[in-house]
Each structure stands twice: as C-alpha cells, then as structure tokens.
Amino acid sequence: MRGVMTRPSIPPEALLKECLRMNPGKMAVYPDSLEPGTRVGRWRVVESLGVGGQGAVYRVEDMDHPGDFHALKLALHARDGRAEREVALMQARAAHPHVVGFHGCVRWPHPHEGGLGFVMDWVPGLALHQWAETGDTTFRQLTTVGATVALTLGELHARGVLHRDLKPEHILIRASDGQPVLLDFGVGWYEGAAPLTTGPLPPATLYLLSPEAIRFLWDSPRRPGAHYAFQAGDDLYALGVSLYRATTGHYPFSEWLPPDLLQYAIVHQRVPAPMDVNPRVPHALSEVIVRLLAKNPLERYASGAAVHAALVDAASRAPGEWDVPIFITEEEPPGQEGDKPQRRILRPERPRPAWTFSPPPPLPHAAREERRGHWPRRLALATAMLLAMVPMTLARRDARVDGSWVADVHVDPAAEPSTEAPLPMKNQKRAPCTARLEVEVSGACWLRLWDRPPNCPPQTVAYGGKCLWPVPKPHPDIPTSVDAGTPEAQ
Fold it and tell me: Does the pTM of the predicted model rise above 0.85?
C-alpha cells in the first residue's frame, strides 16, 4: 500500500478520456468471480475484498512493482454509468487526503472493450460502525473522526462535489493512523455530470435520506419529470445518521422497516437523543447529532465547517466523559480450552422514536397545492401499519421540539374505551377526511385501525368500538431548501 496518494502523471481530462475511450462490450466472465492470480492489465488479483450492488473490489498487486498493493474496483454491469461517475470524481474533483486515492483505469476482460474498472489505494481498516464497536474506541476519537469527515465534506461541497451516499460503510478508519477515508463516489454529483436515473430521487440508501428528500418523493406523482436537487445539507444529514449509528449501535430509524413505513418514520418521528439510548454519550456530542438530524433543514448546520467547529467545541468540554469507550463490553468464556476470552459489545436497546405532529415543509412553488390524491392514502396506510409496531402511548399535551410539534409520550397501558368523543389535538388534520381508513370524529381526522378495544395499540384512542389514531396535518408551514432540479441533478 502506498501511504501517500499519487496523482496521475497526465492531465485529469486526458486521463478520463483515456478511461472512457471505448464502448464496453459483453463480459465473458462476471466481474465478481475473479480468482486469485487473475491478471487485469498490470495488476494481479490477490483476494476479494467484497461485492456491492454495483461493483466488486479486489486487493491487487502491481506486477511492475512487486509488493505494492492497491484495490481494484470493477463495475458489475458493463454499461453502468456509476463507474464513469466515480472515475470522473476521484481522478480530479474529489482528490483529497481524506478521500481514497485514485491510480488509474482498467478495462476487463478486454483491455479496450471490457467493462470499466479503476485502481485506488488499498486502505486496511474498519468501517466507521465496526471501528466504534471494537471496545476500545473512545468518544473523543469518534468526535475527532466526525469533525474530520465534516470538514472534508465541506471542502468537497465548496468544489461542487456531493457524495450522496455517505454511510458508515463508506467511512473507512485507516488502521495505520486512525484517520477517516471516504469511499464510494459511484452516485456522487458534480456540475455537468451525466444523469444516472430518470426518477425523482438520485440512487440512494433509503434510511440515509433526509426528511425533505422523502417529502419530494411523496409529491413526485404530482410533478412529472421533476428531480430532487440534492444539497450539501443532505450529505450532512447522512453524517448525522452515521454518527448516531456509531454512538448508539443503531440507525435512527430501523433499516429493516418496509420502505413505506421507513419513509413515514423519517418524516414524522422524532428520534431519541443518542444520550437517551446510550447514557455514556456526552451531552454535547448528543446535541450536535440531534441538530444534524433536525426535521427542518434550516435548523441544521449550514456547512461542513460549521459541523467541524461544533464537534471540536463539544469535545473541549468535560474531558472525563470523552475518554471512555463508546460501549460497555463483557468477556465471553472461551469456546475451547486454551482459547482467549472474547469481548462482546453490550449494545443498547433499539431507540423508540416519538411521533411528531409536524406539518410538511413546503415543496417548490409549483407543488404548493392541497394534496388529496396519492399522499393521503400513502400516509394512512403507512401510519396504520407502523403504529402497531411502536410501543408508546400518546399523552394529550404537545411540546415544541426541533421546530415541529411533538407528541409528549410515556409508556402506559393502551387507552381505555370511552363513550366521549375525543377532542381534536393541535396540528391534527381537520375534516374532510378522505383518505382510506380515515374517519371523522369531532371535526378531526383519525385513522381507524384493525385492532378493537380493549386491545388498542399504544398511542391510540379507543372510541365507538374502534381504535383511533390522530392524523397529522399535511399542510406546509416550515421553510425548507428543497427545490426542483434538472435531469442533470441525478
């Protein structure tokens, strides 16, 4: 492995043209099945490092410099534009000490007509979430890494580069010095980049999307051809998700939820603060992460530099609580006599987010109209299904948190049946109640669940032989930075 990234000896534009000069043909052998010893140009495959949705990565040896190891990434699909996008970014625009170094292009299996691949630094280390769970990583170390990633993102954003798929797996902690290295710019964006998709959102990991991106997706049936203009703030929101995962052992919203339910949770649930899930998390660090995950994009940090400054300032307080491991560990007895005891991470329980009664932020001007078609039906179905999974009850008070109305919740038995009609709550949708499963009671809209009293799920009201849940208003009143983009934004 080369400790320092080397730059191409020819101009980046010429290098890119050299990489892309031939149209790819059909592949005789799948790129994810290369055996050790396979030659790809001057590179010899040593071992597979993993296979993702769009590419296979191998550790390779430079045959011109024996003992010099790099990583080779081959596109799984010969005509996939993501490989070209990643090459275009890494060979020039995203070159940075904390971005994996780029060393050139290859084509395989045919040197001129094969599928595109590229060679980059081989960086031994662990992904962010794995590194956080070694049992030795402290909050100070994690905060330093988070600050470095934030500053790196800020510098890339200043160049017009967006990562668009930042997650713990794409933040590698280098074993040699503990420094973070950003990986996988396959869906990244820069000015003038060719479109990757024709849909409303760019290719992305759903549980990392911001609330405003989800709202844009929901509104897309009413705006054919519109594309979400991914912002620097979306990258920073994803950094908040990654830091939440590193400090608690869980994502803010379970990645195992069905897509519709996960989307609804991202928009309408207030995630518990990291310190409420893992009491070891310093208060100041927890506050930074909570702000990164604010529902209202205007309440988040304005730039990567601002996140960096906030994390550095946070770590300067109460030094004692910053120098302890992130998670408690316990020793497991050895499996066989003579084996060393293994340490096991005691991961906190998965967080139980609170429901928010937050009206959606406005979408672009052309979309600011009453939504009575797809949105109410999707909202009703997603809410009804998800409520049965969330063990919390709804109190009759509201609290203002993070710029949105949040239900004050506590763990109580399910609501007792009542003969009195429930009163409307603040920010609850008012009649007419037109979506599926909605019923009108006291002039407000409620979801009629499949459960029956006295077995109503938590967070519901039992009335008239039905289990009812208050539907939040779908009207916008919170400002947002969402705007319609162009096909190039994808």
Answer: no
Question: What phi and psi values does residue 386 have, to the nearest 5 degrees?
Answer: -75, -30
Among candidate residues 412, 409, 414, 398, the one with its CA nearest the CA of residue 472 = 398
Residue-wise pLDDT for 365-384, tens only, equals: 433 333 344 444 444 444 54
| Burial status of residue 280 (CB atoms within 10 A of its CB: 0-12, 13-18, 19 or more) | middle
Angle (CA) 199 204 208, round 5°: 130
pLDDT in tens, 207-217: 999 999 999 98
CA atoms within a 13 Å half-sphere pointing along the CA-CB vector of 368: 12
- Is residue 56 within 8 A of residue 32, CB to CB? The reply is yes
Which pLDDT tens digit goes with each residue over 66-82? 999 999 999 887 666 77
Q: Copy the structure tokens of residue 241.
A: 């998700």
Q: What is the pLDDT, as a whole number, of residue 85?
A: 80
Neighbours of 422 (CB within 10 A): 20
Q: Which domains does the chain have, with CATH numbers?
A: 12-121 (3.30.200.20), 125-331 (1.10.510.10), 376-470 (no CATH)
